[in-house]
Q: What sequence folds into this?
């Protein structure tokens, strides 16, 4: 994960690689389901063979402990 | 749809609004299924209540007639 500063907020960002579009879309759904279950939602950029996930907390315009937990759980979905 | 120039390629980009994350994710899947069925894949940025779709043709680094057709079909999935 990289820490990036975007629009004045620190964010956690990681790119995940896949064989094709379908696998990247399946991962997007896994992350989306996790997000919905925790009511905490990342941005996900879906591209061919690639999904880039960005976590941060809108309310504090930055990173909360929870974002690091969600990042680790996102890694768990990739394995 | 807006025509944008990104990384040296002309692209068609449109942002679609939704009530929440789940609806934006459902739309992402609809567009993803269309993309897979046509073997032509856009970028999709999924955010809370929002999905931004970008079409272009990688092989010509720009816009082909097919991208405009896919854009119109993407609109059809939104209605």
A:
């Amino acid at each position: 994960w990289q820490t990036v500063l975007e629009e004045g907020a620190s964010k956690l960002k990681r790119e995940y690689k896949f064989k094709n579009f379908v696998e990247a879309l399946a991962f997007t759904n896994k992350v989306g389901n996790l997000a919905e279950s925790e009511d905490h939602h990342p941005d996900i950029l879906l591209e061919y063979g690639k999904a880039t996930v960005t976590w941060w907390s809108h309310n504090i315009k930055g990173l909360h402990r929870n974002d690091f937990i969600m990042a680790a759980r996102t890694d768990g979905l990739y394995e």
Summary: The helical segments of chain A are 21-38, 65-78. The two ends of chain A are 15 Å apart (CA to CA).
